[in-house]
Amino acid sequence: QVQLVESGGGLVQAGDSLRLSCAASGRTFSNYAMGWFRQAPGREREFVAGIRWSVGTIKYGNSAKGRFTISKDNAKNEVYLQMNALKPEDTAVYYCAADRAGGTYVNTARSSYDYWGQGTQVTVSA
To answer: What does the mean pLDDT of the chain come to?
Structure first.
C-alpha cells in the first residue's frame, strides 16, 4: 500500500524559506511521477511542482517558478520542495501526490495523481 507522508510545514514570515519533505513507501516508484499541490481555503487544489522519479523530468506551476525547487533522493524515497521568498499568498495546505502512469512527462492535473498524502500546513504571515 502506497503511503505518502509530508513534513516540514509551519508558520513563517514573508521572505522566509521552508523545505517540505515527502516520504514515500509501499511501492517501487521508479516509473512514477511525484507532485506537490497546494490548496488554500476556498480555492481549488493547484499544481505546484512535479518530478519524474526515474528520468528526473521537472515541471513547475506558475506560482512556483523562480522561487520553489523540487528535488528527490532516490535512496531515501523522498521528494522535497524548497520554497524561498515565501509570500502570504503561498499560505495553503501542501500535498504530496504520486502518479503511477509511466512516461517521461509530468502531469499537472490533479486527476492524474493516484495517491495523496495528508498534507502539511504552510502559513506565511505578512
So the answer is: 95
